Amino acid sequence: MPRPPVCVPNIAAMPGSVYAPVKSRTETVEGQVCPLNVGDTWRTPLEGARLEDIHQLDHPGIHRYSDPRGLPELIDALVEKVRTRNGFPAEREGVLVAAGATSGLACAVGMLAGPGEQVLILAPFWPLIRGAVQAFGAEPVEVPFFDRVDSVDAAVAAVREKLTARTVALYVCTPSNPTGRVIPAEWLEAFAELARSENLWLLSDEVYENFAYRMPHLSLGSLAPERTLTAYSFSKAYGLAGYRIGYVVGPPAAIAQAGKIASHTYYAAPTAAQFAALRLLRDGDAWLAEARAAYQRVGDDAADILGVARPEGSTFLFLDASPALDERGISGFLADCLAEGVALSPGISCGRDYENWARLCYTAAPPDDVLAAIPRVAQRLGRGSGR
Prior knowledge:
Strand order of the largest sheet: 2-8-7-6-5-3-4
Structural class: alpha/beta
Distance between the termini: 58 Å
Shape: globular
CATH topology of the largest domain: Aspartate Aminotransferase, domain 2
CATH architecture of the largest domain: 3-Layer(aba) Sandwich
Number of domains: 2
Largest sheet: 7 strands, mixed
Low-confidence stretches: none
Number of helices: 13
């Protein structure tokens, strides 16, 4: 056992904050920086669902803990949402309200993967999932995927190539952070069949479910509900990143075990944020439709300037900077962009094969600011219109 000041090996091997180093560098730059390095939105939440709108008189006990699994009325609303919008038979006992989808996914990982076991992760991936797997002593296994496969057969083959006797789960993110891809329904059906044949869990990250622009989003839980744990997010859907509110849906027996981890870490999601979420489920459809249209417009415009494919979903573009790099590598490219007032995230945080890539979130600042900043990135890349 490690003794002070040494920590346990799996925690020592975890990456630290993938966003803090970029943020600290932005603070040294003179002038305004367009923060395209973090997945957030410029839009403010729906009026009536902001914390200043949630009053003690209307919600007695708002300052107290909620039930660790979530407010009963919110759970009821989420069951109805999942049944009608996502198309699978959620039960009250199969819903866990979490302090953001990040914590919900971590609790799900802790339930399904133990020390020495492996979780396959389609790469490039959301940066924090790798550390969540490592935190519980399991091994994240990267599956080169989004930029490597072009058919359902190739998709299944890519996953099968990484399967071992220690594999317990497959992590799937669609719409994808960071690639902006939406995995086709046929591929998801094949993953469900593969999971059944190999007796695997499916960990489905669907926090960008509302932002599929060019093909419908399909919930993996509708294909294999008995073995799928799905994470959803009010942070991404409704601009509530700072409120820390998300939820996980899955088989009740699995959710009960994930709930144990939740109770021993964050205990319960913020009560006031849960009331805001309840309001959004009831009244937020118009806000969501406006956000989706606005995100698609700025994403398409940004892609056109950069000379890359328009995003199929999510709020990201993933850029191969290899042809534009000098002897300083990607760090030099990111530093040059930052010197010109544009912050991007390093692609290595999304997978070890992507050290020469950069992630860009086109919703993290107002559209006019984003579209003023993008030409500077295009010029650095030496491609696109750069206008």
